[in-house]
Each structure stands twice: as C-alpha cells, then as structure tokens.
Amino acid sequence: MHRSGSPSWSMNIGRWGDLLHYPLWLRAVERIDVPAGGLVPGPLDLAKLPEPSGPADPALGEAWRQWWEAAVRQAFEPPGEEIVTIPGATLRGPDFEAVPEPLRELARRRWDPALLQWHGPEEFDGTGAPRTTGPDGRRLDIEGDVVRAVEAEVGHRAEPFTLSIHFLVVADEEIRRAGPREFLVPERLRGTEVYRNWLHGLVRALV
Question: Is the domain of 181 the same as that of 146?
Fold first, then answer.
C-alpha cells in the first residue's frame, strides 16, 4: 500500500502466510509450551484444531522459540534475503531444514497443506479475494485513511516512510514490535479504534 507518483510512504501488509502461521499452528496442535511475551504472541485464534501426535514434550519449547524468532526476522526481510541457520536451507515446509531439531522432524510429519487453515471461508468475498470488511461491518483496510488523516492534521503531505505489518490470527490484544518499523499485529485488531489510534500515533511520529 502506497501513494503513487512521487516518492512517498508505503506500508507492507502481510496476512496468513505459512512462514509465521505454521509455527503458531504447530505450537497449538502439539501443545508446545511457549507462553506469550516479547516477539511471541498468544495462541492461534482457532476454535477447532487437530489432535496432537502425542503427549506434550517440554524439550520442544526452546527449539520452537528459535524457529519463531528466525521466522519473524525472515518475514520482514526483503525478498531473496532469507535468514537461516544452515546455508541453502529453509524455514518453510515441507522440508524445514533450518528448523532446529528435535522440532524439525515433527514439523515435517505434521505438514499437510490441506489441514493448515488459519482463516475460514468467511474471510473471502465472492471473487476469492480477502474481504475488506470484518464480520461486524467495520472496514479493515484503513491504513491509507489514517495517513490522510495525519496529513490533514499536519497540513502537508507525509514525508517518505516505510512500515511493515504482519497480521497474525492469534487470541491476543498486543501489538508487538519486531524492528524499528516492523510490527506483529493481531488480526482481530485490524480496523478497530485500538488499531486506528495506534497507527495514527505511529504515522504522526514519522511524517
């Protein structure tokens, strides 16, 4: 999302990608005990999940945290600049070569794209595109509106800036900073007054 024409602001918006949502899904399904805090969000916001493959393994917690932190760094990197622990390896399925053991084998075993749903059909319109309104009718894609409102307040066009936001389907209310201008935002906050006010203050400080 950006203003066309002369150099100006841009917002990179990410939703539903497997790089971030598969680790969250696996943590939820396998009952991996990594509580929210820092970069780690709350649990995946899904009512129905598959059964775990076995009893919860406490040894998986640290490996999962390493995987999550690497995935977050990679999510905000420019395309082609993957951050991995093994040259040429990947944090993505189906191979997961860069995921630490003992979690790598579990990630491979549970990988099934047909089961990996972190959004429902209600999230799409009749054309197959993501909806721009929430279930309560609120608009979701308000980022441009917020920038224009700040421009009206300050009386000039925004100076060029870039923000990157990844929306996560999590049962959480906390916006987490992943870098100077990179943020993890719960999907449930998008389009709300909480999100609007947060984004307004952020943009106001940049323009």
Answer: yes
